[in-house]
Amino acid sequence: MNLLALETSTRHISVALWRDGELTERAEVLANGGSERLLPWVRQLLTAADLQITDLDGIAFGAGPGGFTGLRLACGVAQGLAFGLDLPVVGVSSLAALALASYQRGTEHLFACLDARMNEVYCAAYLMRDGTLESVMSELVSPPQQIGLPPGQDWIGCGDGFASYPELLATRLAAVRPDCWPTAAAVAQLAAPRFARGEGIDASLAHPLYVRDKVALTTAERLARGGAK
């Protein structure tokens, strides 16, 4: 099975090619945009694998949560390619991709957290067991001081939410990996079994997972949350 995966929910943008379990990836950290990188990277990955774009069996994308522009970019490119090729698509939680990208070994309880700006964070909790990532707490957005962990003391924090708010849950975390990001390779790994189960959907049904439906705060709301971030 040949799958293309896109992840642009953060400033760490990436494209990956899954070829029967073998992964190749192109990635770059860009403060703004990145739309001009995606399609050239797609061509590079396919050429290096000696594949044509018509050899693809599906397209996956990081659905979010994350930056609004980035989420629309990944979804839009995935839809455009899938429409043209008549391929199914799968949207993958960017927080799940972050958790998988940060995973190191054994059984791990992973608390994925991304800076959502506006003095909030996106977060979700997962258990990696026997090579499978299981959701423990669904995606949510919240001021960092209101975040709580599921039961247990062996949680590992991952994501730039812990770089922006280093005090976040510090007393209840076994370790922190603040320099981890969602990756297209992780998106492809999570999407592959879903495609194998026939869970791919029509491109017209694909949509971002925003979690938060508000892109700006009033001055009073910013001050109430502790600043103008």
Task: Tell me what the structure shows.
It contains 6 helices and 10 strands. The protein is of the alpha/beta class and 229 residues long. The chain folds into 2 domains: 2-94 and 181-205, Nucleotidyltransferase, domain 5 (2-Layer Sandwich); 103-177, 2-Layer Sandwich (Nucleotidyltransferase, domain 5).
Helix/strand layout:
Blueprint: E1 2-7, E2 12-19, E3 22-29, H1 35-48, E4 58-64, H2 68-85, E5 89-93, H3 94-102, E6 108-117, E7 120-129, E8 132-142, E9 155-158, H4 161-164, E10 173-177, H5 184-196, H6 219-224
Parallel strand pairs: 1-4, 4-5, 6-9, 9-10
Antiparallel strand pairs: 1-2, 2-3, 6-7, 7-8
Helix pairs in contact: 3-5
User: What integer is the average pLDDT?
Assistant: 92
Radius of gyration: 17 Å
Q: Strand share of the residues?
A: 25-35%
CATH superfamily of the largest domain: ATPase, nucleotide binding domain
Number of helices: 6
Relevant terms:
single chain; Nucleotidyltransferase, domain 5; 229 residues; alpha/beta; globular; five-stranded mixed beta sheet
Describe the structure in brief.
With 229 residues, the chain is an alpha/beta fold. It is 28% helix and 32% strand.
